[in-house]
Write a structure and sequence with these properties.
By secondary structure, the protein is an alpha/beta fold. The chain has 3 domains: about 80 residues, Winged helix-like DNA-binding domain superfamily/Winged helix DNA-binding domain (Arc Repressor Mutant, subunit A); about 80 residues, Periplasmic binding protein-like II (D-Maltodextrin-Binding Protein, domain 2, 3-Layer(aba) Sandwich); about 110 residues, D-Maltodextrin-Binding Protein, domain 2 (3-Layer(aba) Sandwich), CATH 3.40.190. It contains 10 helices and 11 strands. It is rod-shaped, with a radius of gyration of 32 Å. The two termini are about 45 Å apart.
Length: about 290
């Protein structure tokens, strides 16, 4: 028996004194409202109405139960309203600062089609992790090693010159092999890549091939790093999508494959992963063959 539906029919019929009008208010046929109330009377073991030509008249038993029935129906209506509001409340999601506005807008639009309303908070990796730990956001796209990644994004080196080689090796920037100038070319890491599984590996490559310490550095912002690339023909460690957006020429890194790994953390992690897997992959610049 639909117990809530039966109580709703009971309240509507009692308020209107008519099975016909009460059924209309309940948005069911009169026969359905009558069956529900009859089943409720059988369940309770007492009649709720005296049925006569004058309409539906409450029995004393029915009058005694009416206040509680009204409270039950109001509570059910309130819960449905709150559930709808909770569904529409924006889910605050911490995202990498490297995500382009266009890609975030497409992610938000696709999320709405899947019943998720997103409110983005762009932040660097360490801050995103802290935001989700402190529950200032309901979920975050966090930086993780490639082995733990749900989404993976290839990294390479990008510069203003369209190099004739398919792969760029860090060792070509070593003194004696680089072009003669008062300033040696540098490789810049942006804040998104200032994480151990990327930064430390780049430093190890730098030391292994004999570059000067200053030739691989971490910039405070992507804008500052890109400015160095345009001003001094330096190289930026970035994804193919970022390079295209910045108007730079991208090549894979020769010595080792470097990858940005992402996972989603937080209370709503499973819902986001299940409903928005492909949309997030596109936003991050990952594609199907790069994503676990």
């Amino acid at each position: 028996m639909d117990l809530l539906g039966a109580w709703r029919a009971f309240v509507n019929v009692s308020e209107r004194g008519s099975f016909t009008e009460g059924a209309a208010a309940t948005r069911v046929p009169q026969s359905v409202a009558s069956r529900r109330i009859a089943a409720l009377e059988k369940h309770l073991g007492e009649r709720l109405f005296d049925r006569s030509s004058r309409g539906a008249i409450l029995t004393q038993f029915g009058r005694d139960l009416l206040p509680s029935a009204k409270r039950l129906v109001r509570l059910a209506d309130d819960m449905e309203h709150e559930a709808e509001q909770a569904r529409l409340n924006p889910l605050r999601l911490a995202v990498p600062e490297v995500c382009a506005v266009r890609d975030l807008a497409r992610l938000a639009a696709e999320a709405r089609q899947n019943g998720v309303y997103l409110d983005f908070h762009a932040a660097p990796p360490a801050e995103r992790a802290e935001l989700v730990r402190s529950r200032e956001v309901r979920a975050a796209l966090v930086a993780v090693p490639p082995s733990d990644a749900t989404w993976s994004v290839r990294l390479g080196l990008a510069g203003t010159a369209d190099l004739p080689v398919r792969t760029v090796y860090v060792e070509t920037l070593r003194a004696g092999r680089a072009a003669r100038s008062s300033r040696r070319s540098r490789i810049w890491l942006q804040p998104e890549d200032d994480v151990p599984h990327i930064r430390d590996r780049m430093f190890r490559i730098r030391d292994a091939v004999g570059l000067q310490p200053a030739q691989v550095g971490v910039s405070a912002t992507l804008t500052a790093a890109t400015a160095e690339v345009f001003a001094f023909a330096d190289l930026l460690l970035c994804s193919p999508g970022q390079a295209s957006e910045l108007g730079l020429h991208w090549r894979p890194l020769g010595e080792i494959p470097l990858v940005r790994g992402f996972d989603v953390a937080g209370d709503d992690a499973e819902r986001i992963r299940d409903r928005l897997w492909h949309a997030i992959a596109r936003c991050l610049g990952a594609d199907s063959q790069e994503t676990a």
